[in-house]
Amino acid sequence: MSTAVARASVARRQRAAGRATRIGRVAMWAVLLAALGVSLAPGLYMISLSFMDNPQLFAGRLVPWPPHAENYPRAWVASNIGQLYWNSIYVSTASMVATVAISALAGYGLGRIRFAGRGLVYGIVLVGLTIPLQIALIPLFMNLRVLGLLNTRLALIGPYTAFGLAFGTYIMKGFFQGLPRELEEAARLDGAGELGIFARVMLPLTRPALATVAIFVFLQNWNEFLFALTFITEGKMRTLPTGIYALLSSEFYGNYPILAASLVLFSVPVLVLYFVFQREFVEGLTAGALKH
Amino acid sequence: MSPAARRRWRSNLAGYAFAGPALVVLAAFLLYPIAYSVSLSLHEWDGYTPHWGPFVGFENYRALAGDEVFWRATWNSILFVVVRTPLEVGFGFLLALLLNRRLALRPLLRTLFFVPVVMSLIVVTIIFQRVFEPNTGLLNTFLRAVGLGDWAHPWLGDPATALPAVIAVSVWKNVGFSLVILLAGLQGLPQDVVEAARVDGANAWQLTLRVITPLMRPILALTALLSIIGGLKVFDLVFIMTRGGPTYSTEVLATMLYREAFELNHMGIASAVAVILVALVLSIARLQTFVLDESPEGGQA
Questions:
Q1: Which residue in chain A is spatially nearest to B131 when comparing CA positions?
Q2: Per-residue burial over B14-28, b = 16 or more CB atoms within 10 Å of its CB, e = otherwise
């Protein structure tokens, strides 16, 4: 009798607990889906805008029906987007390659070689990681002007290489430090020099870190706005962000369907890169933040 | 030379051979500009004459101290950070806690929540200009549709709501960043401690408040500091969205720097603003080590 009561009470408690978890699960999904809606809605709105014409826009429509795909060829022509793509790809890739190469070398030096002044060099890297880059805006502008390099691709490749370098060196140093000593010693016994150890033994092992740095600095370069705005004032050399920004003060001002189509064209490579390389990207971010 | 000295010399040489290129680039694009800016901030210059104008000592800083716009920009920068960081870290932590369990869709959700972080600010700002547009914008249209038409408002055109609107966009863009870091932190927590508390009969609520949150304190502090530093540097978002207006209501230090330099040709004053911004960020970054040392778990930092 008493065991039956006890069993019933246990069952009741379990049912109550089950109900509580069910309510909890519903609440959890409600919060998650609401947050997901908020974070995706603006991007979807952009895509939707890019298929509208102006009457649909001014009617406050959300769904572009019938869709106006002709915005895309018009946006392509209006912002001369082919040229912008080429400039952005050129500048972002060149500085990415330079950053990756230089930070792999520096990461190896700082991570595996004991040398006088290593702490100071690493200190400079850490300062580079936190300092607002705006401090370099006026000095670099003035020097590029004196050198006659404003409105050239080099005016962006140099700074972008440097701006990615602190992050790249930081990640590469951490990774090199984590590699086992035995590898190096074995190679040294085989008579390999420092450069041979770096190039043939260590570097191939750092492929994930190299990928992280590459994808991270590429996206950073691709999206950079302030320096591109200041150093490139002629249309022909502009990169995508400032090229699209220039649309805002052109005849297309307020023409949101054309603007939105340009924005979609601009975002597609970024999003594709992100979805393909998200593991490297997210790992880079979390490693950068949590390894402190 | 003794063998030990030769070995030391060789490893110094190797060290600088490897770190040298980075050192040269950082010196040219970081150290030299810092020195240049500090020095220029003590001079007067319109940026056009081939040489800097006269040395004026701290006159540029004194001029800033008497400039209402500078105080406005400083206050806005601080307000930006003070409002943005708790929201960003708070929402990020909430979502990270919700995602920190065996969910079939977790990788997909994490990926989607992170999309705003990788989107370019020019894209984000132009979309949100459209969202905040008073007549046919998404937000006002939505408010009218659900019967809250009285709340419809020229969000970016009114000095009272422009800064909150800009901050909201910034939070929207960066929550995913906090989320990803905090989720990685949660997954790195010692599972035996969490499991032991669960066995002791702690419910989900107690587990979160009493066990997980204290363990997460160093990572929460770090996320907050990253958000603060990022917030002080904000430029693109404000510049594209409002250009610091209306009537300086969204002016921050970075947009003031740009305006002084490239619209008003006050290179000395602009450099002084840059130096102040750097000093502000570096002193807060110093706090990072301080905060982490203070927390009981962060002793090794």
A1: A42
A2: bbbebbebbbebbeb
Three-state DSSP class for residue B43 = strand
Q: How many CB atoms lie within 10 A of CB B261?
A: 24
B108 CB within 8 Å of a chain A CB: no
CA neighbor of A90 nearest in space, from A155, A157, A161, A144: A157
Show which of residues 75-134 on chain A sit within 8 Å of chain B, judged by CB atoms. 102-103, 105-106, 108-110, 113-118, 121, 124-125, 127-128, 130-134
Q: What is the largest CA-CA distance in chain A?
A: 97
Alpha-carbon span B97 to B118, nearest angstrom: 22
Residues 6+ apart with CB under 8 A from A50: A64, A71, A72, A75, A257, A260, A261, A263, A264
What's residue B191's pLDDT? 83
How many CB atoms within 10 Å of residue B158?
14
Residue in chain B nearest A123 by alpha carbon: B23
pTM for this prediction: 0.88
* Neighbouring-strand partners of residue B43: B55
**Best to test chain A binding among B48, B81, B130, B252 (most A CBs inside 10 Å):** B130
Contact B178, B92 (CB under 8 A): yes
Encode pLDDT of A185-224 as tens digits.
888 888 888 888 898 889 999 988 999 899 889 989 999 9
Which residue blocks in chain B are alpha helix, DSSP H?
Answer: 3-26, 32-40, 59-65, 68-99, 106-118, 121-132, 138-145, 159-187, 191-199, 204-206, 213-232, 236-241, 253-262, 267-294
Give the tens place of pLDDT for each residue, B56-86.
999 999 999 999 999 999 999 999 999 999 9
Q: Reply yes or no: is the peptide bond before residue A66 cis, omega within 30 of 0.
A: yes
| d(C-alpha B294, C-alpha B290), whole Å | 6
C-alpha–C-alpha distance, residues B34 and A139, integer Å: 8
Backbone φ and ψ of A114, nearest 5°: -90, 120
Integer CA distances (angstroms), B105 to A174, B100, B110, in order = 31, 11, 9
Return residues 228-267 of A near B (CB < 8 Å): 230, 241, 244-245, 248, 256, 259-260, 263, 266-267
Mutate to test the interface with A, among B10, B11, B23 (most CBs of A within 10 A): B23
Interchain contact B17–A (C-beta under 8 A): yes
Q: Which amino acid does the sequence have at B237?
A: L
Distance, CA of A78 to CA of A73 (rounded, Å): 9
Q: Does B12 touch chain A (CB under 8 A)?
A: yes
What does the alpha-carbon distance between residue A6 and residue A17 come to, in Å, rounded to a whole number?
16
